[in-house]
Amino acid sequence: SLPTLPQVPDGPYSRAPFVHKSSSQHDRTSAVGDMTYERLEFLGDAYLEVIATRLIFSRYPHLAAGRQAQIRERLVKNDTLTQFSMAYHFQDCLKAGEGERELARASGKILADVFEAYVAAVILSDPVDGFKRAEIWLTELWAPILLREFGPISSDGGATFNEYNQNAKQELQQRIVGKDVKLEYIENRPMEQTKHMQRYFISLFLTGWGHEKQLLGSGEGQNKVEAGNRAAMDAMVKSKDIVDEAARKLGVLREQRKLEAAAKE
After folding, report:
1. Where is this region: Disordered (predicted)?
2. From CA 216, how far away is CA 246, in angstroms rounded?
């Protein structure tokens, strides 16, 4: 579910984010002071950049500036903002002239601009708390993207950044699993349902290569597949020595089998 949309009090900014200039030209009573989303989106774009930068700088402080900029681009690009606009049904609120209405509703760029304008309206309409309200809202809105694509975020900046690898389980399986070797992915606590998402928690255990249910790593995610992949990613970092030794033994075993097969030919 989406975070609650912060409301803009009635006034000069309450309708402007949804007014196209064609509507303003033909019906000036529809926008106080002839204000349109095109004027507000210029400021909203800047606010989004600042808020995204503050979030990334505080949550991923150990990343290089270039990588931080890449993450920011993912959060504020037009495709992302268009999806947010559509999720809040902003397209149904647009006011435009007859010749522009359908174009405005169909244009992803326009819907992205409308979202930027709404951010500006939230902040401008509340000089005391507007920025704080917008920042809290956007942080919640961006959280699933950051979790899904860039790993968990923490308020203290202590989390390890791991870009999500959707093939981690398969890669680990190929590296260390042979005959009589087993990897078990087991839920270590019940699924948690927060306000905006589900979270699953999985631990990974190794049996074989001299180990009996050896804990290799743990992961969490919005579904069991993601949590399992993150557990495998964690294992390849935190239990690197065990994984490397198992991979070495498997490599030796495979070479022996190749030699035995060649000798029989």
Report:
1. 1-27
2. 12
- Please give the residue range of the domain that contains residue 197: 168-264
Structure tokens at 257: 């089998």
- The percent of residues in the chain predicted with pLDDT above 70, rounded, is 83
Q: Is residue 184, in this structure, part of any structural domain at all?
A: yes
Active site residue 45: yes
| 45 pLDDT more than 80 | yes
State the catalytic residue, choosing from 41, 45, 113, 135. Answer: 45
Q: Are residues 35 and 108 in the same domain?
A: yes
Cβ proximity of 84 and 119 under 8 Å:
no
Give CA separation, 256 vs 157, 173, 249, 259, 262, in Å: 47, 20, 11, 5, 10
Q: What is the mean pLDDT of the chain?
A: 84
**Residue 27 is a catalytic residue:** no
| pTM of the model as a whole | 0.57
Active site residue: 41, 116, 126, 135, which one? 116
- Looking at the 3D structure of the chain, how many domains does it have? 2
Is the predicted pLDDT of residue 174 greater than 90, yes or no?
yes
The answer to whether residues 137 and 181 belong to one domain is: no
Q: What CATH number has the domain bearing residue 242?
A: 3.30.160.20
Residue 191 lies inside a defined structural domain of this protein: yes
Residue that terminates a domain, selected from 119, 150, 181? 150
User: Does any domain span residue 8?
Assistant: no
Is residue 156, in this structure, part of any structural domain at all? no
